[in-house]
Structure formats: C-alpha cells, structure tokens
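Re: that chain you flagged

S.,

Sorry for the slow reply, it's been a week of failed gels. I finally had a moment to sit down with the sequence you sent. For the record, here it is as I used it:
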Amino acid sequence: MRCRDTVAGLVNQCIPGGAMATFRIQFHDSIIAEFIRAREIHTDDSWREWCAAGTVVSESRSTTVTRRQIEHAGALFDIHVKHYRYAGGRGRSIWPRDKAELEARNAEHIRRYSPFEAPDVLATASVRRRTRLVDSWLVTHTIPDALSLDKWLPDSAGRARSAILNKLATGLAQMHAAGFVHIDLQARNILLRQAESAPINIFLIDSTRGGLRADPIRRQHGRLRDLSALFKSLRPHLRTVETLRHYREYCGKPHLDDIDRLLLRNVLADRALKDNDAAP
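Prediction finished late last night. Pasting the structure tokens below so you have them in one place:
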C-alpha cells in the first residue's frame, strides 16, 4: 500500500485486486483537521472505522447519520457524520453527484442568500475506485437543542407560532428571490433552536439537490417544488386560514394578485398530482 498526502488531504491508496482507490478529505475547519491528523486517519479503512464508531441517529438504504463527540485542546465538540453510499446501475454509479460536497456548498449558499442558518461544515470526504464514486461523508457541528418544525408545531400556539411561520415565509421569499432553491424543503428539514434570551433561529438542512438557479424556468420550477413539499409536510399542522395567511406573507402582499393566485393554483395542482401518483 502506498499513500500520498497533499495539503487538501488527498490520499491515493492501492487496494487488493489492483484497483486504485482515491480517498480524499477536504477540511473546512482547523479543529477537525488537527483532530484527524493527530490520529493519523489518512486511509479509506481508518476513516471508515472512525466514522462507524458514532451512535446511529438515522439510517436508510443509501444514507447513515451518526453522532459522536470529539475532544480537542481540552474541549468537547458534538458532531454529526453523514455517510452517503452510491449504488445502482453502472451509469449511475460512475457519474453520481457528490452529495456531501453539494450539501456543504448549499450550506454556504443558505447563509449567503437567505436569512436562515445552516450547520457548520467541518469536513467532507469521498472514496472513488478509479472514476467511480463509492462513498462520501459530510461532517458538521451538531446543532444543540434543535427541534424540527414538524415536532415543534403541535405544541406551539399564539404569537410565537405566528412569528415563526411569518419568519419562515418571508425568509423563503428572500431566498427564492436570490435564486436559491432547496428542493427537499420539508418540515423535518427545518430546524428551530432558541438560545437563552435570544430569538428562535431557523436552520435549513439536507439540501443535496438544491442550489442556485440562474435560468428563470429552472428557478420557477425549484420554487414550485419547495412550496409543494412544504405545503405537504405542513398540511397536518396548519389550518387552511393559517396556510393562506402565511402564503400572503411569502408574497409580501395583504391581498393576492393574479400572479400570486396562479402560483398557488400550480402548487396545489402539483401536490394533488404527486399525492395521486403516491397513492396505492
């Protein structure tokens, strides 16, 4: 086995069978960089072993999220490690988009183009066998004491509930006006955190398919998908009058004009079509 390290954290590793594996770590924060280097985690195997040592938070066929603590310079840090696995047909395996890199990039876009926050990215990593992307990882700081919007809403009421929904609506309008779309904008991907004696902060997470859309048609399509997904996930928690009130906040008008009504009809039609396709 031979390895070559560079400043970016690129490692080429010979694996059994003669296939060349390229293991790459890109550090976004000095804390995790010093931690990883101090433990000589610089190969595919050592990285996988370290990532697997955390507590599993959620798991699906292609994604595993773990949580763990690391100690650096006498301080403890809570982190989340998200592991993406790429499988399927040959064409899909060779040229998939790196979800960890996309999510890291979109976290920066969320901070720049919206009033929302996103998890702090510490590192991304990937393994390729020849040109085929096999795995990738995203390492972020844990958002302490955060609650997803779908879990927060059932116990919310009054002005606090209205204020958060208004803040979400106006923030989404600002984000869409800047050309950024999330694509998987469900209530479970919207986190709320309230620090002591501070307003509630809104975090957007899990944006692996979104991004900036310069083309007006793609931007409008992404906007439609965001509103449709959010409508579906909030439907069990909001009354119709609340939905309309906060849609007006999104439009920034006390009364809807023809363009606003057309967008609303398109959202409802898109939701009805998708719900019908998903029905057994």
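What I noticed first: The radius of gyration is 21 Å.

Talk soon,
D.
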